[in-house]
Amino acid sequence: MSSDQLFAEKKDLVGNFAFDRDAALVFDDMLTRSVPFYAEIQRMIGEIAADFAVDGTNIYDLGCSLCTTFLQLQRLEREVTFIGIDASAEMLEQGRQNLDHHHFSRPYHLLCQDLEQSFTVENASVAILNLTLQFIRPLRRDAFMRTVAEGLNKNGCLILVEKVLSDESLLNRLFIKYYYELKKRNGYSELEIAQKREALENVLIPYQLCENEELLQRAGFRSVEVFFKWYNFCGLLALK
Fold first, then answer.
1. Would strands 124-130 and 152-165 be described as parallel, antiparallel, or unpaired?
2. What is the mean pLDDT of residues 213-232?
3. What residues does 128 pair with on adjacent strands?
4. Which domain holds residue 78?
5. Residue 55 belongs to domain with CATH number
6. What is the pLDDT, as a whole number, of residue 1?
7. How far is 221 from 203, CA to CA, in rounded Å?
């Protein structure tokens, strides 16, 4: 796993963050150091998915990046097909290499598709959105979520992990401060944190927790429950 040094040097102009080859090569390290309790979140996703996966169905990871979640799910005791969709060909290429390196033996398909455009979810018992929805433009999120909900089978589940905003400005500021302190503890400099924040400013657009819950309810999910919360990070479990 290569170390994330993408923003270690001072840039004259910080462009929008891109899921390109440079990001793909360091993405595992980036997530491990940037997402609080990342390994535990992945473990929880595997635990939840194991209870909702049904033989003969599909498990979707939308925004699958390096397919790390599939490795967590490899030991599922169900006959399922894994389908990963991502808009970045570079991420998917690294994902294939990741699955090959770990001798992933389950049936799978990786599809390079823009999730803001037309895509298909069908015969799904589990759908996973792990830090993906926040990169979908808000105007496209209702249509996106309807596609996910319609493709899930009855009693299927959506596992959604997102950064979230507080409706209280003081708490927003505090939670962001605590988050940046975590990044410092994990070895990121002030410069790296500032430049990464600037790169994501127009790309990553979080909702409030209540807005995500309302989005899921509008899409047709019958029940939505928080299963993980750390300051400005949240995991939601939604049932079809």
1. parallel
2. 98
3. 61, 159
4. 21-239
5. 3.40.50.150
6. 66
7. 27
